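ok here's the first one, seq then struct tokens
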Amino acid sequence: MSIQGARNEKITKKKSVIREWIEAAVFAAFLAFCVIRPFIVQAFKIPTGSMRPTLLEGDLILVNKFIYGAKVPFTKFRLPMLREPGRGDVIVFIYPEDKKKDFIKRLVGLPGETIEIKNGAIYINDKPLLDPIFNQHYYYNRGDLALEGRKIVVPEGSYFVLGDNSASSKDSRYWGFVPKDNILGGAMIIYWPPQRIRIIK
């Protein structure tokens, strides 16, 4: 083989390697934006202190989008869910009063349940929530739906949510209920900053 031929073969191999890298990058981008992000997991940044001490401002979290049945983009359809949203789940959802905003709160009330906040505690169907997830926080009677002595019933197909930092959270006490169709997923882990890495409970 001539020197020129060897040189051409080397250039061809180099182009082949570059092409393989480009194809791999394109495929990875396709998976990230067309499969993983819409259907499996998505990253979110915590903007406020409404979920302190569970989540702090600036925490970067991963949200499991398939657990409750991921929404199919540009349609009204959802994939089959692994399980129903449950009390205590930290969920990300489309804010009912502004479809362009995503909120994160803790799910407290299920469809059909009666909710009351009394003496800093949450009552479900006239019984206090004794789970440590809830009884380690003080919940304030703020907002039209959480006035002292007021009991509200969660409509079918909707949920009642609260921030863990009740003193600084605009949640269901103020604007009402989260329709099931608005739920985007369940918060899984904090992945940044490094000292905050943990499973979200």
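and now the second one, same deal
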Amino acid sequence: MGTQFLYRLTPTRAAMLSEAPTDREADTVARHFAYLEGLTRSGVVHLAGRTDTTDAETFGIVVFSAKDEQEAQERMLADPAVRDGVMSAVLYPFRVALWSEMDEEARR
């Protein structure tokens, strides 16, 4: 898997989740999803998801591999949601201790 990292995402406008997002937010979130989907297909992202809440405690995480912290920082900052200011992110060094070998259908 290489060196692993995690970034924690929080919406910069909490009401984006409890109310309808603006057109700009919706477009950015769609590009954010496509970005992570592409990195997942290429084997860089191992897990991405968010809490199923819509309050101020809501957050998402992305667990991924990078060659070093600089590359990890660059990947996080290239995420459209972070780059466009719709979500803020904090990067953490991370180590997966246990990994299930679930089949692809079970992950959905």
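notes on #2: Strands lie at 3-11, 45-50, 60-66, 87-94. Residues 36 and 42 are 10 Å apart (CA to CA).
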